[in-house]
Amino acid sequence: MTVRVLLADDQPLVRGGFRVLVDSASDLEVVGEAATGLEAVELTRATAPDVVLMDIRMPELDGLAATRLITAERAQTRVLILTTFEIDDYVFQALRAGASGFLGKSAEPRELLDAIRTVHGGDALLSPSATRSLIARCLAEPDRSAARVPDRLAVLTERERQVLVLVASGLSTEDIAGRLVVSPHTAKTHVNRAMTKLGAHDRAQLVIIAYETGIVRAGGS
């Protein structure tokens, strides 16, 4: 199956480079290019991409607002945020807006292609320790808007709570299966059930919920 990708960046040369790279992969296809956040939203409606490669700093409508609109209107479309070290403060906001992960613009070409495939598969870019540390740091901010609501987890079984902690720790489905001594299929089923019960569309949202509710804390579980 070919993964349909929409490119959203206000720099034509950047978009052109991404198009050449993405189209070079036999399993990926660029279905549109957006120069503004508003255009990204409109093209998502028109082309129904599987993945949107989204820059944060966009004219007319910034990448955060565009991501929020896209994920609200089309849950099956994943948004992969492109960022730099200078704008890390925006990354958590992007994840809360519905993005499935983020990637630095300094990433290698192969990393970008793999990242697109990863978010399309629903696994989110949350395994690297740097990403977990960033989310933990943002959630530890005393002025964050969302308070912890432990009761939100009452809908989960004990096993699903265990899975939630492991997902927030950055473990893959295979790693979770090994830790719980179950098959990968069973582990994936527990993850999917937790996502459904908590209203999360992917693992990125599960990680945020884990920190918000306090089942996992900054610096450790």
CATH architecture classification name of the largest domain: 3-Layer(aba) Sandwich
CATH topology of the largest domain: Rossmann fold
Instruction: Quote the beta fraction.
Output: 5-15%
In angstroms, what is the radius of gyration?
Answer: 17 Å
Low-confidence stretches: 142-148
Work out the number of β strands: 5
Detailed description of the structure:
The chain has 221 residues and is an alpha/beta fold. The protein folds into two domains: 3-125, Rossmann fold (3-Layer(aba) Sandwich), CATH 3.40.50.2300; 147-213, Winged helix-like DNA-binding domain superfamily/Winged helix DNA-binding domain (Arc Repressor Mutant, subunit A, Orthogonal Bundle). Helices cover 49% and strands 13% of the residues. The chain has a five-stranded parallel beta sheet with strand order 2-1-3-4-5, with helices on both faces. The protein is globular.
